[in-house]
Amino acid sequence: MSLVEIKNLTVQYPDVKALDDVSFTVNQGDFLGIIGPNGAGKSTLFDVMLNLNTKYQGTLKFFGEDIRKSKKYLKEIGYVPQKPIFEKNFPATVNDVVRMGLRKESDENKIDKILQQLWIHELSNRRIGELSGGQLQRVFIAKALVNNPKILILDEPVTGIDQQSIELFYSILRELNSKQKITIIWSSHDLDAVNKLANHVACLNRTLFFHGMSEKFFSDDKLVKQYSEASMQEHMHHH
Ligand code: ADP
Known about the structure:
alpha/beta
């Protein structure tokens, strides 16, 4: 059974069709990289998957159930947003932030365990405003993982983070996927990183123009070129 099944998904905003007839599936244990230029519809896709946007056409199934009928699946998803939702000087410690992710209170062991796993245990009592970008990112991953979700969704997560933290972040993702069998859906602009980490690629630019094994995408010069040209057009459009 597919963990996620997306069929003929279309999202029409007043001025723009953000997603046009997108279909793909994600299986247990997949590490899916979603690539696409700015404005390609990646965040829109995540909004629909997280039930934040219900104005879509098409169907979405999680664990075989239509999300219009059942919201049970939501507890199986951990989500790391592109931008942390807190202000830098929000007076909370690392421990506080991760605790906010907990569904049941008083699960100290879970918090300790996840802080250790993400190499932020020693920062537990530090204010989040004192952390580097990379440390803060790991705090939000810990918050997303503290309820042991089966699926982790990450939106474009490495902007403004130093190289060493990016490497640590990638090794953490790899371990979550290979050792803990967490299914990962990750949007990224970094083609090299997607090539190295993900076993599946979805290439989105309002329509889905490729979905399959990452070897297949990266060994096909025509597809890579098509992706680069779409990104370049979008770039020129913005400048
Ligand atoms: P990405 O995450 O790939 O950059 P988005 O999903 O944010 O793409 O945006 C896709 C398109 O939809 C863009 O043209 C964007 O301006 C538009 N868009 C995104 N969110 C909204 C919204 N809430 N209302 C109207 N238009 C939106």
